[in-house]
Specification:
about 260 residues; alpha/beta; Spore Coat Polysaccharide Biosynthesis Protein SpsA, Chain A; nine-stranded mixed beta sheet; two-stranded antiparallel sheet; 7 helices; about 25% helix
């Protein structure tokens, strides 16, 4: 997925008209390009908003104390058969626990107030692990073989109705609480429509959507590239958090990827 780079200039801001009357704080830049700086740590990321053209990029780094995130719901996708891995990925050992439990705990530690774990294949083995967490619940997707889009829709139907923002993450994409927290803080600080981290230009996870996009998210289909379609439709409003940490693009799909990650 190609995401356009954007603009953030602290001294110049304007309101950008969005779909169906949404208005969010957006950025401006001069004809010479936008201001960007790259940092070498997750704790000091560079931020870009995405609006073409992007032949020149110089963006100011956002500064200031982090804001405590309000109500977030996270959808953790764990319904698949893990055919490439050869065993159920959610049950893989990861940092002293199972991958699914690590993910749930990291999301809660980051400040997510509601975790919806979408299960399907061998759901009965995962439910007891999820039930150990008071702020996590399961959503059953019986159509998990049709792809991720059906699981995302199943999760959306079960999120906390008070949540203002929705995070989506796969169980095979382990992220630390600190990584998740940074993306959440930036998303809320800017009042973003869509926010995700990136490593050296490659988009990563978790990805966060404003609740205002819920009607569009409920209509995603695998035949239309799922979440990609929504991101592309709103590419001018995307906020990308550039970090020098490969964790944000880690995917555990195959045994060799898992072995490399745990070594």
């Amino acid at each position: 997925m190609e995401v356009w780079r954007t603009i953030w200039n602290k001294s110049q801001t304007k309101r950008l008209g969005l779909s169906w009357g949404l208005r969010r704080q957006a950025s401006r830049c001069s004809r010479g390009g936008c201001l960007e700086s790259k940092e070498s740590s997750l704790l000091h990321p560079s931020v870009s908003r995405c609006q073409p053209p992007y032949s020149s990029h110089r963006c100011h780094q956002l500064t200031g104390p982090p804001h405590s995130p309000p109500s977030f719901s996270a959808i953790l996708l764990a319904a698949g058969e893990s055919t490439r891995m050869g065993r159920q990925k959610a049950l893989l050992p990861w940092r002293g626990t199972s991958l699914i439990q690590y993910q749930i705990q990291a999301l809660l530690d980051a400040g997510v107030s509601d975790v919806v774990v979408v299960v399907g294949y061998r759901a009965e083995t995962l439910r007891p692990l999820v039930e150990r967490f008071s702020d996590a619940k399961t959503a059953l997707n019986l159509r998990y073989r049709t792809g991720r889009s059906s699981s995302i829709r199943a999760g959306l139907r079960n999120i906390d109705q008070r949540a203002q923002d929705i995070m989506v993450l796969g169980v095979d994409q382990p992220r630390s609480a600190e990584t998740v927290r940074r993306v959440m803080e930036l998303h809320r600080r800017l009042g973003s429509v869509i926010t995700y981290p990136a490593y050296r230009g490659k988009g990563g996870h978790p990805i966060i959507f404003s609740r205002a996009l819920l009607p569009e998210l409920m209509r995603i289909k695998e035949s239309r590239q799922g979440l990609r379609e929504v991101v592309e439709r709103h590419r001018a409003e995307v906020v990308r958090l550039e970090v020098e940490d490969t964790e944000v693009v880690l995917d555990l799909n195959r045994p060799d990827e898992y072995q490399q990650a745990v070594e």
